[in-house]
Amino acid sequence: MSSSPPTVLAVFGPTGAGKTALAIALADELRARGDDPVAVSVDALQVYAGLEILTGVASPAEQARLEHRLVSFVPLERTFAVGEHAARAHAEIDALLDAGRTPIVVGGTGLYLRAALTELRLRPVAPDAVRARWMEALRRDGPMALHAELTRRAPWAAVPVSPHDSHRIVRLLELDDLGELHPPGSAQAAQVDQLWTEHTRRPTRLLGVTLDRELLYERIDARVDAMVAAGAHDEVRAALAAGASETARKAVGFADLLGDDVEGMKRRTRNYAKRQLTWMRKLPGVELVDLTDRTPEQAAAQLLSGDR
Fold it and tell me: Which domains does the chain have, with CATH numbers?
């Protein structure tokens, strides 16, 4: 085994930049040094079993090279929240470190990344009874009536929310029931709305994958074409028929493919990647790893030898 204690390696970056390839290359380097790494996914949509093509879950061949945990384990019909994922990620990371193994935390969902690595105070998941009551009210009265109720209770929370955004309206009403809906600027809101904290739960090295913008967009377009060729249309239709939850249907491209709008999916994915890059560059202590002119293997070797 490696002589030095393991540190969490967190690989974050935009869709199509090469996160999975870098994670696998890092794993190969670590194994050569006597380690036994495991990837822990921090992607909000890769948790769903049945959306592997659309969400870009590591392929069986890639998972044979590096075990990936917290992917494809949530039924499509379930709503899944970051608080539940954080608890699972903490348990996986702690168990791996305590066993002397290196967790490679990898994904592109910023909230899930920070929740996995830090002790953020996350808003709680509503009990089933609370969720069921508001979902019944939504079916009976519609989202505009619930938006009016939210406006009555907390106008500052209702203003930025569309009267047709049923998911957010229900979630905000749930939080109000639980006493967890706080005005902007309050101390309670600041605890849950912080962008990042530099204090991670366990020693962590944060790696931010970047790529030349034009090359990134070319890869995204090619990635979408490959998803379509692999059967993404059939996957989303089957997911819809199986009763995919509103959360699962938020996967980028889900609605586009239902409408046979491949170009729309490409455009939406490029816009999402732009937001991921913007968010990533604000992370304190992030080491930017540019894969434009070097392979993931070259980058991994440099990173683990102490070079950037």
Answer: 8-120+197-304 (3.40.50.300), 128-193 (1.10.20.140)
